Amino acid sequence: MTKRRAQSSHSRARGSRQGASSEQWLLLLGVAVVAAAIFGTLTDLPWPAATIDLRRPQRLTMAQARASNALVPIAVAKRRSATRFRFKGGPAAREQATECLATVALYEAGDDRDGQRAVIQVVLNRVGAAGFPKTVCGVVYQGANRKTGCQFSFSCDGSQVRRPEHDGWDQARRAARRALSGYVYAPVGRATHYHTDWMVPYWRASLVKVATVDSHIFYQRR
Hints:
This protein is mainly alpha-helical. 47% of the residues lie in helices and 8% in strands. Strand 2 and strand 3 form a beta hairpin.
């Protein structure tokens, strides 16, 4: 009987030591976590990279996008001259084309005169280029019935409802009429694409940068 009691006491003592050891380890672990959290707030070191999904593209800030775009040189020597646009259609069709051109110019460039002319030239260049609709309004509203994928963002992002434009309408219409009568805005050549300088589109590397007009960058096909 005495022997059994001694063994039982020994087992309880060993269990107590193991319990105390586990509690000590948990306490140390808790202290380590708190210390790491405090260290992280006091330094500029990032948390482990395992928390970052490198498969997802990172968004660029406006400053980073502008710096990236500035590194791409303008290939002036490769810029091809645009030809005079010849409108084929009656008075009603011409008026419709004028409104389409004026609308895209206004919503894409605001009341900036050169910006409006540049946008209009891009539209007319697309009419004559392979892979685009063959009418002015067809080019302007290409993809407008989709929530994403429209060629000119104003036509599918709700801008016309959310942000109606007023200033610059007369100027845009005059620019549209001149372009339909053969006026060429030479600075952008035969550019078929453009974007603002605070973004970097996925297609940038596949085209040739040929001009900048205010905050817009223009590209032509290779």
